[in-house]
Amino acid sequence: MKKLFVLIVLAIMATTVFAQINVNSSGNVGIKTASPSYTLDVNGSARIRCSTGAYNNLIFEEITVSGGYSHPTIRPSSDWYGSLGTSSYRFGLLYCDHVIARDLEETSDERIKENIKDLDGSLDKILKLRGIRYDMKPDYFNVADEKYKSKLEEEGKNQIGFLAQELGKVFPEAVSFDSTSNLYSVRYTRLVPVLVEAMKEQQAEIEILKEQLAYIEENCCGNNLKSASLGSEANFQSDEIKAQLSQNVPNPFNQTTKINCTIPSESGSANLYIYNMQGIQLQHHKINGTGEQCVVVSAESLNPGVYLYSLVIDGKEIDTKKMMLTE
Question: Can you name the residues that pair with 303 across neighbouring β-strands?
């Protein structure tokens, strides 16, 4: 009789405990659900104890975030603890909408790189980029909750960045394509080294311009010029006619542009030189005659970018200006 009582108690306990655990004909196990749809289907929060330590638990639960929205969440049991993957076992992809972090790192050790080369022509490439302001299309946010969808749509307005298809024409290394979503993405951090090299090229151009300005101040017109700057008129030795170099028109240009200049009557020779931003001479136009003259520059032998052009009369640089060639 005593044994029978024990068996009845155990049966009651088992019924109470396992009433919350169900196994269907497919072998799916459900906890607090009568119709498990997955191999393990849990209705509610869960905790995985990784060890006996107080900080080594992984929690699966639903939390409420700002705005009153609830989200399923995976988190450690204590702040600042836990990791997702290891250095030996890494996840291949992470799809998410927002990333909030104190620090982001990219593996960039010299020991894992080869075929290392300098970046050339960075400034010219940067000048081809088009930064834009835009709104995300509402149908991008495929969210069932209309209130939350409206919040995401509002957050997607007035953004700044690039169009991946446009950026890919200049920097294909900074653009990737995801075949699962059929969308292009931009790796913005890959533009950082290009910007650094572009700034260095620009600084080199500034130094060249400083040297040219110093030369004008010291040597132009027998020191009659007290001060000069790029884009200003430069006096020549005649009080009646001043040597002058005008800004090219149109600027920017994509086919041809006109450069007007004034050559004093007593000058012997006059030449217009075209340089790239590295100071290399690309074109030479001899100016025949004095007074108002016009030189037509063709884009046929030039690549899109920024160029310098200088007016030199009797071996003396009168003025230097910038012009831009577009595609």
Answer: none
